[in-house]
């Protein structure tokens, strides 16, 4: 797949809003770069990029939007969507719930009623989903996932091998989780294979523009708006966006739904993807994280955009595709 020849559109209200958000937050030095996966600590803390891709194929981008970083937990949303398609919602719900846990992403905690992970956006749930994908797709699981992620982004994505090696070497907590999943019946196959897929998917290298485009593919009902190829199945997208809305921002998800109101997923690499259904994908990158693991400047940018354009799902000015369409015509 060739890189999309999508052009950045500079002269537009959305572009100016991105510029304002970037200018306002660029000097915010709060937060720290994740270092529990040693290779992540090499990120430049000052990098800051913000991008919006629309469901009709336009792109607005400001700052360090072509700097690569690893997708980390943002991958959990897209992998969940693929598992729904491949295994079906019933099998998926036999392995992982859809309840917010209120616990940190790497908590070793299971729903006491089912012994299953609370949701697919925490590590335990995501590893269960990787296990399910391995069961259905065998050794092709990673290529399948990478191909679909690439279709969504509109370019061929690759793995950051150094981050992958670093995760593999230091992921002892995730190994413990995988073995507990096996003991609890939330994993049926090899924990090592599930973990390998999980570590690899987290190590996929993306940019803020990629995240915006992947978000726009979700916003466009699973079809890449430019290339028109289908990355995700329609009904799985709806289910995924629902879980992103309630569980996507670690143990800040409740505040996020309340204040920002956008289905989103963040990762410890510093990325956040947000989706305005039928309208926009928003991607931000800034590696300094707050105590809950969310990008400080990413959150601030989303708050500003949501406020300015009424993007909150329940904002009375957000009347679906017609609202933003009027801005991007
Ligand atoms: N690969 C990371 C881990 O499992 C992902 C964490 C995250 O982004 O929340 O620890």
Can you tell me the residue ranges where pLDDT is under 50 for at least 5 consecutive residues?
1-5
Write down the CATH topology of the largest domain.
Beta-lactamase
- Strand tally is 10
Annotated CATH architecture of the largest domain: 3-Layer(aba) Sandwich
> Would you list the SSEs in sequence order as H and E?
HEEEEHHHHEHHHEHHHEEEEHH
Radius of gyration: 18 Å
Q: Any idea what the CATH superfamily of the largest domain is called?
A: DD-peptidase/beta-lactamase superfamily
Detail the topology: elements first, then pairings.
Blueprint: H1 13-25, E1 32-33, E2 49-54, E3 59-63, E4 69-70, H2 74-87, H3 89-95, H4 123-137, H5 141-153, E5 158-159, H6 161-170, H7 172-184, H8 191-202, E6 204-206, H9 208-219, H10 234-247, H11 253-259, E7 264-266, E8 271-276, E9 280-285, E10 288-289, H12 296-309, H13 321-328
Antiparallel strand pairs: 1-10, 2-3, 2-9, 4-6, 5-6, 7-8, 8-9
Helix pairs in contact: 1-12, 2-3, 2-4, 2-10, 4-7, 4-8, 5-9, 7-8
Residues 72-73, 105-106, 123, 167, 174, 202, 267-268, 293 line the site of glutamic acid (GLU).
């Amino acid at each position: 797949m060739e890189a999309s020849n999508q052009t950045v559109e500079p002269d537009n209200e959305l572009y100016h809003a991105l510029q304002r958000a970037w200018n306002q937050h660029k000097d915010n030095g709060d937060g720290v770069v994740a270092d529990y996966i040693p290779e992540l600590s090499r990120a430049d803390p000052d990098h800051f990029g913000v991008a919006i891709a629309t469901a009709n194929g336009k792109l607005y981008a400001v700052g360090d939007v072509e700097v690569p970083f690893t997708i980390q937990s943002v991958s959990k949303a897209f992998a969940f969507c693929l598992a729904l398609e491949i295994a079906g919602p019933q099998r998926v719900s036999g392995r992982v719930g859809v309840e917010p846990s209120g616990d940190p992403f790497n908590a070793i905690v299971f729903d006491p009623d089912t012994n299953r992970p609370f949701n697919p956006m925490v590590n335990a749930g995501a590893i269960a989903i990787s296990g399910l994908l391995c069961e259905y797709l065998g050794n092709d699981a990673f290529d399948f996932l990478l191909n679909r992620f690439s279709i969504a982004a509109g370019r061929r994505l690759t793995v950051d091998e150094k981050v992958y090696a670093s995760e593999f070497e230091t992921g002892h907590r995730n190994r413990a989780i995988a073995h507990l999943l096996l003991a609890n019946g939330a994993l049926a196959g090899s924990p090592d294979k599930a973990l390998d897929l999980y570590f690899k998917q987290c190590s996929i290298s993306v940019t803020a523009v990629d995240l915006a485009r992947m978000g726009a593919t979700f916003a466009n009902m699973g079809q890449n708006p430019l290339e028109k190829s289908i990355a995700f199945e329609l009904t799985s997208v709806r289910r995924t966006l629902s879980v992103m809305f309630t569980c996507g921002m670690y143990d800040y998800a409740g505040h996020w739904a309340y204040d920002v109101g956008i289905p989103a997923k963040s990762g410890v690499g510093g990325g956040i993807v947000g989706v305005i259904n039928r309208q926009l994908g928003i991607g931000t990158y800034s590696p300094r994280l707050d105590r809950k693991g969310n990008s400080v400047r990413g959150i601030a940018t989303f708050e500003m955009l949501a406020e300015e354009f009424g993007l909150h799902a329940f904002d009375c000015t957000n009347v679906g595709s017609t609202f933003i369409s009027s801005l991007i015509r």
